[in-house]
């Protein structure tokens, strides 16, 4: 296992949702002790309130499903990567950037590294993310494209908000979409109070108290390009200005205004095709790939990392040693395509909804319909 990163903890400060299928796949890949530590470091969705949908003025538009029976967990990406690196142990070689792939005269794959070294292997699996060198080699081109949205994330301790905003946001995740494609997701993470496994002695969570992890999203355009060059306080201020320009109510922006400026970061949404048939445009062989390398998934469905973990478990199950590698990879890639198509279809629904509000008609409709839907929601609640 080779990774270009030199420090597994040097990654985005946001969180990852792992549903039941992702956890059951992970159980097949790591030791029970790692699984227990992961659960002890995770926030259980079943312990938080129902998700809420808001409009840009802070009016309730609707609720998400009842989560009381949910097995899903949220975990800091840093915590997850650290535990996975521990599970890999000495097999993980950090600081090794892959620069190219080749096949030798015997048909065996060769991986070249930026430091000039190379290795030959029976099977190469590219788990190298959205801009995968391995998948690009296989597909003879990029496997994903910018989805048209630019995102920014940050972390805000719940205790840092006013009592009114703490009450409004509650112990739940929220999503608000306004005119012109401005959207704000606010995730709630509490791996201590809402631990999926009550074993604090096993917890390695980097989040130590109730925290909102927000994601601001805008359609990518010449007007948003400059945001990418900003950092810290300047980026936070520019994001707030952008929401205010679109007339978002002041209190809905408190979660950004009171965020730790050091936690604010930009990320670009990339997406592969939603059509399963498009996802592995190569013949099955001794080089394959998994996760975002094949089905780069915007974070809007919270399924990308879970899908990558399930890919890895499926691959291992197919490589049972009794069939030829090419046949095993063929079967694995059929599963990979199906799952990739499903997660991309789910994630692109929200992306398309956000982009639809960035038309003149969409902006007018969002502004006009939001109060109507909010009033209908209030009426429904008062009748219960
Ligand atoms: C803000 C945000 C929130 C998200 N929230 C969720 C969520 O709630 N749930 C969810 O399931 N998913 C979520 N995702 C998506 C999720 O992070 C990705 O889908 C997931 O990480 C993909 O896993 P992967 O292993 O395929 O790729 P990555 O996690 O991108 O890992 C790729 C690895 O390959 C290494 N690498 C890359 N290139 C090279 C190279 N040339 N040589 C050597 N190593 C290389 C990188 O260092 C990295 O370690 C979110 C994404 C974002 C941006």
UniProtKB/TrEMBL annotation:
The keyword Transmembrane does not apply. It comes from Lentzea albidocapillata subsp. violacea. Keywords: FAD, Flavoprotein, Monooxygenase, Oxidoreductase. Gene3D superfamilies: FAD/NAD(P)-binding domain. Residues 253-335 form the FAD-binding domain. It comes from the Bacteria. Pfam families: FAD_binding_3. This is 2-polyprenyl-6-methoxyphenol hydroxylase.
């Amino acid at each position: 296992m080779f990774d270009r990163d030199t420090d597994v903890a040097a990654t985005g400060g946001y969180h990852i949702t792992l549903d039941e299928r992702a956890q059951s796949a992970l159980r097949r890949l790591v030791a029970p002790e790692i699984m227990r530590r992961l659960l002890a470091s995770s926030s259980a969705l079943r312990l938080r309130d129902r998700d809420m949908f808001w409009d840009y003025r802070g009016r309730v538009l609707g609720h998400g499903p009842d989560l009381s029976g949910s097995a899903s967990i949220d975990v800091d990406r840093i915590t997850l990567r650290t535990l996975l690196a521990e599970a890999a142990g000495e097999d993980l070689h950090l600081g090794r950037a892959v620069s190219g792939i080749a096949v030798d005269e015997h048909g065996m794959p060769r991986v070249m590294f930026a430091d000039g070294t190379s290795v030959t292997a029976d099977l190469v699996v590219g788990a190298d993310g959205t801009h995968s060198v391995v998948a690009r080699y296989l597909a003879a081109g990029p496997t994903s494209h910018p989805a048209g949205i630019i995102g920014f994330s940050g972390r805000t301790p719940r205790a840092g908000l006013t009592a009114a905003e703490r009450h409004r946001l509650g112990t739940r995740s929220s999503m608000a979409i306004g005119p012109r494609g401005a959207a704000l997701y606010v995730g709630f993470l509490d791996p201590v109070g809402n631990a999926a496994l009550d074993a604090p002695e096993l917890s390695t969570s980097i989040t130590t108290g109730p925290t909102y992890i927000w994601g601001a999203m805008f359609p990518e355009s010449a007007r948003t390009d400059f945001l990418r060059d900003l950092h810290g306080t300047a980026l936070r201020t520019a994001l707030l200005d952008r929401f205010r320009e679109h007339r978002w109510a002041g209190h809905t922006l408190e979660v950004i205004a009171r965020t730790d400026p050091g936690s604010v970061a930009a990320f670009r949404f990339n997406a592969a095709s939603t059509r399963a048939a498009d996802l592995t445009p190569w013949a099955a062989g001794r080089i394959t790939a998994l996760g975002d390398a094949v089905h780069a998934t915007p974070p809007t469905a919270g399924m990308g990392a879970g899908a990558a973990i399930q890919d890895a478990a499926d691959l291992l199950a197919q490589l049972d040693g009794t069939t030829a590698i090419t046949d095993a990879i063929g079967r694995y890639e059929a599963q990979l395509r199906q799952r990739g198509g499903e997660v991309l279809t789910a994630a692109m629904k929200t992306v398309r909804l956000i982009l639809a509000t960035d038309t003149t008609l969409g902006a007018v409709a969002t502004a006009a319909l939001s109060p109507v839907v909010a009033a209908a929601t209030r009426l429904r609640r008062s009748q219960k």
